[in-house]
Amino acid sequence: MRVGEMNGSMGTGMVKSINIQRAVLDICLDTPAPSALPLTLIMAMPRPKMLRRCLQSISSLGVKNIYLINSKRVEKSFWQTPFLSQQSIENELILGLEQARDTVLPKVHVRKLFKPFVEDELGDIIANTEALVAHPSGNTKCPIDIQQPTTLVVGPEGGFTSYEIEKLNEVGVTAVTIGSRILRVETAIPALISRLFPA
Fold first, then answer.
1. What's the average model confidence in pLDDT over 85-112?
2. The pTM is what?
3. Residue 102 class from Cβ within 10 Å (0-12 exposed, 13-18 middle, 19+ buried)?
């Protein structure tokens, strides 16, 4: 069977013995994990059930650095979900890794205050990257096959408020669009990533 060591190499395992208490495997780990995408993803906190699906798909696509942030259109109750516990987040990320045959666990950072995050942290995060925010009314089309380190900001359904877009613009984040349709976050993120980094 295929096996992998968390944050390590991948390979094969041969079952040498098995019973109701344990299985003994002869393991050979000789294959490196697939390359990570050169992408930092910053997303407004989605509905809790959607968060689980988003984390799985983001993990399977090879994103290794994820920020969950607040927005005016994010319900306060979303931040109370048990799905935000470290163990719950890790469980969803592992499901994504298993799907994609990867072993390197993404890092998830939670930031509950929008303005301090943008003013105090975002500038350092986007340094030396192409910084983009997906926005339905953006004037610039989202680039294709970008081939460079990128920071992508994705808002809640309906997008960020005008004030939030202005704050993002002030630190150097460009608003881009993939069309006028309003997409669910779980649809928008894979669509954007596949456009920026086509397989």
1. 96
2. 0.93
3. buried
Q: Which two tokens stand for residue 16?
A: 């040498």
**CA 66 to mean position of chain CA atoms:** 5
Alpha-carbon span 133 to 135, nearest angstrom: 6
Q: What's the number of CA atoms in the CB half-sphere (13 Å) around residue 159?
A: 20
The full set of domains in the chain, from first to last, is 1-32 (no CATH), 34-196 (3.40.1280.10)
Q: Where are the alpha helices (DSSP H) in the chain?
A: 48-60, 86-100, 114-116, 123-126, 162-170, 185-196
Structure tokens at 142: 């989202």
Pull the structure tokens for residue 117. Answer: 């995050």
Task: Supply the pLDDT for residue 157.
Answer: 80
pLDDT at 138 over 80: no
